[in-house]
Structures are given as structure tokens and as C-alpha cells.
Amino acid sequence: MKPVKQVEGRAYPFGQKNVDTDVIIPAKWLKTISRDGLGEGAFETVRAQDGNVFDDPEYSGANILIAGDNFGCGSSREHAAWAMDDMGIKAVIAPSFSDIFSGNAFKNGLLAIALPQEAIDRLMEVAKTDPITVDMESMSVTTPFQDRFTFEMDPFRHQCLSEGTDEIDLTLAKSDAIETYEKRIDSAQPWNNPQAA
Questions:
Q1: Whether pLDDT at 182 is above 90
Q2: Which of 8, 9, 85, 141 has the highest CB neighbour count under 10 A?
Q3: pLDDT tens-digit map of 114-139
Q4: Contacting residues for 60 by C-beta, under 8 A, at least 6 apart
Q5: What angle do CA 128, 133, 136 make, to 5 degrees?
Q6: Separation between Cα atoms, residue 138 and residue 154, nearest integer Å
Q7: Torsions phi, psi of 8, nearest 5?
Q8: Which strands form 91-94's sheet, in the order they lie side by side?
Q9: Closest by CA position to 144, among listed 126, 171, 160
């Protein structure tokens, strides 16, 4: 996972509430275990509508999504985070998130930033014309108009995202302790590992 220090750029002023993972990535796209190409199916049902924000050239290359309350509800599919990453979204800002989506986002380096509805309303307006910045060091979302909205994040998640550390990295960092433990157990309980005897 790459470290996330700051995400700056245009944002999709999406704003819809209760967007479930089937809207983020429809079930027909779940036949793959690869993350590549899922961005093509991201928000497919929304993109099928004329004048949708995702196909508006004004927001081409946007890397932030401004959404409504309860974003990522529904099933637990990790493909939702994969699809958003594949389409270039690096941060989602909403009043609240499904716990499962929030966890999947974290594990895939996608920032899920919760802000009050008043902040979301303001960011929706700014997103129509100007970039937005999410800064992990100051834990704030800012605009060129001196708006500054601070957010909270679990310290463990903040550290992992800022350092680019995932669960595999955390496990590998303990490899010496794991090896020492396994040798001790093999010695004390050889019947559990016939190859060690």
C-alpha cells in the first residue's frame, strides 16, 4: 500500500445518500479477483443516466468523491473499494459510512473521511468549480476559500495510511518474533510438527 499524506484535486459532487456497494460496483463485475479494470464498472447504473457527474468532462480526473450519508451500505464486497481506486478516487468524504465499507477502504488505502452535513454541503458547492485538499498530517479538508474542516480518524488507521503499512507489512515486521515462537513450540511440542522432530 502506498503512503497517503495528502489528496488534492477536483471532487465529484455526487452527494447521494445510502449509496450501496451494488451501486458502486454491480454484481456482474464480481467475477474477477483482479482489481484491474473494475473502474470501468464503477457507478455503472449512475453512469447510464444522462448528465451524470461521473462522465461530466468538468470532473475528468477527479480523485475525491463527495457523497451523502451512509455511503457504502449493503453487501461487504471489497470490490467496491477496488473499483473506486481503479477509477482514480483516493478519498471519499461523507457524513457517515457503512462499517464494512470503511474497513475495506482502509485496507485498500482509500480515505473515508466523515464530516458533518454542513461541511458536506459546502464542499459540494466548492467541488463544482475548485479543487479540495485532504491533508492527513493536519487531519483537515480545506478549500481555496479558506474553508477548513477537521476530521477524526482512529490513530492506528491514521498511522497505517500515512506510512503505507498494510496487514501483511505488520505481520512481516514481526517475522523474527514469529520464527522464535515457532522454534520454541516445535521444540516443546514436537508432536505438533512431525517434520521438526
A1: no
A2: 141
A3: 999 999 999 999 999 999 999 999 99
A4: none
A5: 150
A6: 14
A7: -135, 135
A8: 11-13, 64-66, 91-94, 111-114
A9: 126
- pTM of the predicted model as reported, rounded to 2 decimal places: 0.87
Between CA 19 and CA 181 the distance in angstroms is 45
Q: Write the pLDDT tens digit of every residue in 159-171.
A: 999 999 887 777 7
Cell of 58: 468538468
| Helix count and strand count (H, E) for the chain | 8, 8
Please give the backbone phi and psi of residue 57, each rounded to the nearest 5 degrees, phi first. Answer: -55, -25
Q: Distance between CA 110 and CA 134 in Å, rounded?
A: 12
Alpha-carbon span 152 to 135, nearest angstrom: 12
Cα–Cα separations (whole angstroms), residue 180 to 172, 184, 186 = 13, 6, 10
Residue 94 in grid coordinates: 461523507
If DSSP codes are grouped into helix, strand and coil, which group holds residue 49?
Answer: coil
Question: Cell digits for 62?
Answer: 477527479
DSSP category for residue 129 = T
